[in-house]
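Q: Can I see a sequence and its folded structure?
A: Here is a first one.
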Amino acid sequence: MKLTKLILPVALTLALASCQGREAKKSGSQGQKVLSSLAGSETGVTQSASADSMPVADMHCHPIPWVPAEEFLVWMDDNRVQWCGLGVFGGKYGARSTREEYARVLGNRYVAFGGQSDLNAIYLNDGKRAQEDAGHGGFKEILQWLENDLKNARIKGIGEIFANTRSSNKYLRMRRKTRLDSSAMRALFALTSQYGAVLTFHTHWDDDSIAQVEVLLESNPHGKIVFAHCGVDSSPPDVQAFFEKHPGAYCDLSARHVPKLPKKFLGTKRHIFSSDAIVPEWKDLIEAFPDRFMVGTDLQDKNQYAKSVRIIRKGLLANLSPTTAEKVAYKNAMRLFGLQYLPSK
């Protein structure tokens, strides 16, 4: 399963590969109809048509405190996004109210995660050591909340945990590099593993950070970790080697394509796909591990959100084999998070 090395510069290979290759309606019924129309049959649907019409599970999709859940549901329906999942955007205590509001409005279409904003608040208020310390008073309180939410099936994961954001957050105050195997992270991983949930990390693919993630995964063979942004600056050989060793590791592909990916990173190793092509070595990797990737947007603007979903469909899904495209678009998320489709009445 070894992948060939990318010889040409990424920008050139993208160019070569491209040559080859309304309102919220009845609480989300548009997205449900899309999925029911596809259920049980792939025959008679071209690869391109499937990419344009198949449902999408946006697994890097933060509830946004200043965007009402009803408005966000319109964004989803307008772009045929069936599910949205991750923790509440921001760095303040008390984010559960936003999460609960999105859960109330989106229902089973919201894949709820806990802890992100509140755990960010520990760092912003008390610093790096506090984020790493399982004995911190605020952390112990949040851990109790998270366990109660997991026990009562109110959340399916914890995160996004900002563990190593040393140069991948536009806000300087949100940048840091912490230990991913600290006592606090071990406690979170033990908790998600206990309840069959998922822990999502934002980390650069630094050797020390990745070694610390390995410590966590090796501590519990049933644990599951999602690399937000697929490790930010990882390469296909990096991810291949990690996936081969750790079956509990997954990637979301958010922020590895425009419009979330800053233009200065186009043509660099952070760039996985464009509006019409996938970097060939990344395409090989996704096809080799079709059960380990999911899509995501990570955007807080309506127009940018729509553009991101269009690029996911045309640049990524349309250039994968039909079976892999369906897995990456939504089937992997359904399996990993135990999602069920409830047809409209």
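Q: Show me another, different protein.
A: A second, unrelated one:
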Amino acid sequence: MSGHLSSMNTVLKNNRNLRLKKKPFLNFIKKDLKSTRTEIELKKISEDKLLSLKENYIAKNKSYNTKIVIISLLISIPIIIFIFPIINDINSYYTEKYYVEIVENDNIQKKIQTKEQTKKYKHNITEGDKWIEKQHYRNAIYFYENAVEIYPKSFESNYRLTLAYSYNCQKNNKSCEKGKKLNNRLLKHFPDNKNLFRLKYIFDSK
């Protein structure tokens, strides 16, 4: 029993010693923390120095921006030089295609108009011939004048109109002056035409 008590006393003494040893360690940590709480002193800079630093920063920033602009131009200019002809060619292609289509459409319209005009022209000539045979010269003149209006340079229509004027001049004493002027104009272009000279004799005798 006495041995057991002595061993317990020994353990208790050891525990006390450990507690005492821990306190110096804690004191050391507290001192270290106090030392770290001291304020950091900033280095004082004069106003001139601050202004100089600011100007240097702005200058560097400008220099950087200038370099960026120059680099961008150096990259973009070759691209523009390369791409512009391609865009121009594409634009030219579509512009040319557009005008070709306009010309083609215009030609088609002209062909359609020419067919319609030719149809009307033939109709007027045919109707004029019918009225000449019936000796209705005023009606014949009307249709021949329509034919001349469609194709002003046609000898066929101009000669028929002159002929109708001559018949109306002989029978009704009308259209003589018109017939004479038209016949003289045709003679300038067709001086070897014998029929025109016969008509000239008719108009001159009136």
